[in-house]
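Researcher: Sequence of Signaling protein follows. Predict its structure.
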Amino acid sequence: MPQNGLQTGSPLIAIAADSEQKVIYVHEEMQTFLRYPVSDCSGRELSEVIWDIAEQRIEFKPDERSWEVFFTREGEEYHLAVQRLYSGRDQAMPEITVILQKSGDREKRRLEQELSLNLQRYKIALSRCNNIIWEYHVDEDCAYLQGIRSLPFVQSGKIEDFSRKMMRDRHVDKESLPAVRQMFLDLRAGKLMACALLHTSQPEGGQSWYRVTHTMLHDGDGPDNIAIGVVEDISKEQKEQEKYQQEEKYRQALMGDALASYEIDIDNDMIIEKIIEKKKDMLASVGLSVNCKYSQFLKCWAEKNVHPEDRFLFLQEMNPKFLRSQYERGRQEAVCEYRSLNAEAEMIWCNTTIYLIESGGHLTGFVYVKNVEEKKRRELELLRQSRIDPLTNLLNRAASLQEINYILNENGQKESALLIIDVDNFKNVNDTFGHMYGDKVLAGIAYKLKNIFDTDAIVGRLGGDEFLVFLFNIQDEDAVYRKAQMVARELQTIQEEGENRIAVNNSIGIAVSPRHGTRFQELYVKADTALRYAKQSGKSCYSVFGDKISRVVPMEYVNREWLLDELEEIVYISDIQDYTLLYVNRVGRDLFGMKLEDFEKQKCYQMLQGRNTPCPFCNNAKLVKDKFFMWEYENPYLKKYFIVKDKLVEWNGRPVRMEIAVDVGNHLIGDRATTAKYHMETVMLESLRTLNSADDLETGITRILELITRFYDGERSYIIEIDREHGYAHNIYEWCREGVPPQKASLQNIALDAIPYIVETFNKKQHLILSQVEELKYTYPSEYQFLTRRNAHSLFAVPFEDESAFCGYIGVDNPNINQDTIRFLDSIAYNIANEIKKRRLYERLEFEAGHDTLSGLLNRSSFVRYQNGVQRKFGESCGMITADINGLKQLNQDYGHSRGDETIITVTEVMRSCFPDGEIFRLSGDEFVIIAMNQEYEGFMKHVREMGLELDSQTPNGVSLGATWVEHLTDFDMLLHHAEELMLVNKQIYYKNSDDVRKHYSPERMKLLVHDVEQGYYRLYLQPKFDPETGTVHSVEALSRYQAPGHELQSPVKFVSLLEKMKLIRYLDFYMLEEVFRLLSRWKTEGRPLIPVSVNFSRITLLESDLFQMLTEIKNKYDVPSSLVMIEITESIGDIEHKVIEAVGSKLRKAGFRISLDDFGADYANMSILSIMHFDEVKLDKSLIENLVGNEKNQIVVKCIIEMCRSLHVDCVAEGVETKEQLELLKAYGCTTIQGYYYSKPVEVEQFSV
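Model: Prediction complete. Tokens:
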């Protein structure tokens, strides 16, 4: 409430009263008008208080809403406005308010004059227009109309429930109702203006359009609850607009991103307007002008601009005769994609779409040309990615097979050869140097193969370390053997560089065509068999099938006649010389009324055409083997119209004619009524535009189904897809009118046996028109139930095909109008089927580019993309698993690749079941990576353990796993490296426990290590640790030294890093641990004092999954407390994930060992490790001790570390102490243990004494 004095023109809510006119509030400024205190007004009668203020009586009548009182006090004129409120929503709110306002006589007269003028203006405007006007009270939903007789406003006076009555008026079209409803909602929400467009039907049959506008009244402070409604009759303007839109619809569809658009007269073969692209006259560019022959333009344009490879397609699909035939077959558009020069002389991919429009029996077309270069590039790149192996850039397995099959089909009898190349001992490369190194080896092999086989060859990667080469146009078999020798020689030397000098050999299996077969599967089986023989014969060689091994049993023969009898099209075979019929399939025999033996020695023109002489249109001379000759023909003998495909095929060793004829029904198409036809074409155009412009397929098809439903005035439109392989039908898309319940969810997995009538109709390539579903009640009871359950009493449906086979249908339930235009639905089905097929092909190519063909998992390309974009997941928890199938290579060699493939599929299924939400990648033949984001550590490790057990039970040799987890992802590559490190550690355990694999994979260095250990070349040295206060020994460190006969003694620096790189350090670590236990046991037997002994363990050994088992086995051999043994861990373990470090510490503590942190402060300075794992001892790295004297900063660091150890109750050891100055400083800092040359160098066991 305002607290300042009352000013002229400034309103004040002075008094509020309840519904019984009892005062409940009076503003304090009213005190000047009252004889008694303001506080005494509560509870008084409102009329009494107003009398005390203005000395005027107000009679509150129930049907009145407001009253006015004017009074004068001390020469000033005041105005009381009393208003009754009707909210009723909150009983605490006042029902009557009194507003006080000061206004002089001049102000009052000015307001009255302005009101009078406005009233006159309103009356003049109302008399000069034909609009309908009313007053609408928003809160009460009532309107006041006077003398209105125009539909749908035939009432006058006060109309209650005004909004509801307007929406329920039978003359208002249902499509207008959403706009009307929104108009009233906007008014109730407080909008100042709200509009709606009404479409009404008149009793005499006409139609009208009205624009309804409501404008809220203002009282100067804001909108009131009253709006003025104005209705304008815009029927004339609307009809003119619709006419204009209809005339421009096609042309507008062609504009936008079109390079060029123009109109052609198809029947008169004429271009009837200029073709302009970027202001360049394209007709003039080929020497032509408007009204020239369209076919002449096509010829000139093709010769000058169209890419030579695309000219035939361009001329065939764009010529006027073909366009006419397409229209007569029910097509509404023709589309052709080709490469052509544009206005800037650039060769680009173009899409030309011609909308076919018939008027008065005359066919014209609107043509528009689009630049689809980017789209085509994406499609071609996806196609390329789906065919190329990302690591080697060779063809992948699927693409190689496709190319080879094509060549064999074209030149099956010409000499060719298939080579399968397997890299010997490649597993050794991966296990020794890591998979990234192995990838480089494979890429190098691929590079060599491409150089060796640069022409007349297909080179591909089968998977893992297997490659294939298919040679065609070979001179003789000796040329193949020379190439094989070249491969063996070149690949053998590919890895003879570098420090480790691991030779990579190869084995090759060869099969030659046509001697060993003319189909890829035959050649592959025999080449694979030859490869296995080469492997068994010592590797590094090649073997030709049949030369040294028995022949493979030939594959089962499939009878060709039986296969053709299963086709649903008419197929016949005849001699191309004398026209003798050699074979007619079952469909053809049934159609012509033949028996199997009837056509023997009969002529094709007699039996099939009813002629006595060869057909004058016979095209035998035009037929070739590599492609079909397609044409259309109406058979006068059968009175049917067919699409015919002819080609030459081999039949019992000789070339013959094979014809496939598809019945497309009656060729004649009846005329349509002009209005219905135009409506159909308009909806068709809208459907095509929707299909082409929709962001996704589902949105586009749903919109088209809506158009179909409205075109036929049906209740529901839908698409059913047929799964013939499993015998089911599925509702994949639907659109329902308002109030019609959706059926899609309930129409899944429909057995085809349950809809026999529909299936039979579509198998006969007929449309389904059911005017009464009741017709099926007794003949097809299951189908009758199927339809009536969804309240379908009538039905339209047409089938669509994929590769000439019925694969689904599009239907409309309960159509009411346009029932003679089934052709419209047929055309829509054709376009939708094509779009579904095209987009699914695009999705399949996109899927194949990022997925492994065999397993369906994400492939290496996807992993690289994931790796590049992983930054957006930084900060989230991440679990990573690397996996390697044990012995997969041996499995392929012993049992064939099919067994190996089965194992890969089994591994895939187990991984998916254990990590359904994880990202799973197959990187190569036997390598996998699993990434699980946002999982708790305990849950993640539980799934890892379950997966490991499941893989061990379901695969022949199990799978080596490396799993690690980090709470906050910051370094993806480091996490991957740790997981691979763990996997390789577990891989070594597998090699150790598997005799066959150890013999096959054990590197020479491991054999040498075992030999040196057994011979005692690795020796145990001891270096004591001293108490600096007493100078006595209280513990000792066990160190390894190596000395071969005749050589100098070597420190660990010379051999530990190499053993770690070769993943052999575990053998030395466990050997040294056992030597320590053996030493302590000997001391105990000899009665010598037992002091703690520390022994170094590599990080790789600590990460082994069976660490606890190995520690327990060793300590249980000796009667020595394990607490006397301290395991020294280098500080480098600090870069391992914290949960893994915790697990390592837990295993050591569980086995009873003490733990020492070695080399603290060397490279990592990772303080957090001290908070993760409890250490009994921390050893300062000798680099800190070397710079201690004279380096103040270094002294501060060392002193702080010693104080920190004291606070953590951890013994601090200074390592590498060599001078008295160093010793004195360390004593002053409180260091508890000293180790170094100042007291003692490492000595042999026999020289050591306490």
